Request: fold
Amino acid sequence: MKLELPRCLLLLAGSLLAVPAHSQQVWTVDSQGPLKTIQAAVDLAGNGDVILVRPGTYAPFDVVAKSLTIVGDPAAEVSLFAIFPPGIPFDRALEIRQLAADQRVVLRGIDFRIAVLDPLPTVELAGNAGSVLFEDCEIQGSVGAAVSVGGSQSVTFVRCRLAAGGPFLSAGSSVFQTAAGLQALNSNVYLFESDVRGSQGKDWVLISPTTSAGGPGLALKSGFVLAQGSSLQGGRGGQVGPVGFQPCIPLQAGGAGAVLEETLGSARLVLLSSDLSGGPGGQPVAGCPELPGPTGPAQVVLGGQLQSFGAEARAFGWSGLVREGQSAELFLAGQPGDQALLFVAASGSPGSFLEPALLAPHLELGSLVLLPLPALPASGVLASALTAPNLPAGVQVRALCAQALFLASNGELFLSGPSELRLLDAAL
Reply:
């Protein structure tokens, strides 16, 4: 169902755009322009600025103690890919650290890939009292975890794929190890409509005739993880690789969907309409009598608590960038007949988890606007177009942060993941 929402437009223009905001500058990164690296823009930007990244391949970067929005422009993929030998200091695709409680980093429409020889995460977030939001991203590990989160108050992934890299050897060891798609220590992590995969176990090859089990989708050592409308799966177990000489050997088990243990405090995983599954075992080659390796366990709880709730997931999203006068696309997905309400604010906030309602709000309450929407049609999907209004004179960019609340026919409430839009001056 497609419809226009002029009332929403009026409310957005009249309520949110009138909210005073500090001056924000927009920086454009283009491999052919004056700012050729994302790091150069990060270094120049002030708190709250927006960095537009044109399509291309860019070097790794880090964000330290600074609020920023970094978004691919328009909705094109932006990939970071680099190859580093072991031991050099800059060997992650992205690091975010030391955010103060009132600081926030938003990244949308950017993929992260890296090839390194050290078993390091592709993306690392450490020591953040503030919040981080990833939206519409793919993070691929090399020989380590896709994402490592440590000592961070609020990290959120919306419509992202996190996949660990291949097996690796630690220094001084001859036993191959595997990594988690997401490893979290003493942190709060929120997953909405996201996919997390552990690393594949080591396959047998002629030059390295050993195998190993797959890695876990999630390794939670302490802290809190919410997975809503998401999938957590262990990696495939090791098997015989594609070589001419293929012996019959024992095949390895797949990794666990999630491993929970309590290291620095309690560990808790809450699943809302999410799948948790072990990875498949290694597969035998033709002519070998061995059975496939065992499927990994859905969960291994060494300490902590795992809770699962099976209600049908709801989803919401809208365009990441829209310029004045352009059309922003908005969609909602739920159950037929759901009554939807859209909460829109001028700023996002760190995630929180409300019990027993099982809701995870991510919006700052100070500028909140409620937009009633039509009931969801028989398809359960509602799509709309919003024409972007003009910004106040002298304003380059404004943020519109939203979550959808769904009221089911039985009276239950469901809250979608957050989605953030940046309204830009037409001249940018």
In short: The chain has a mean pLDDT of 87. The CA atoms of residues 71 and 108 lie 5 Å apart.
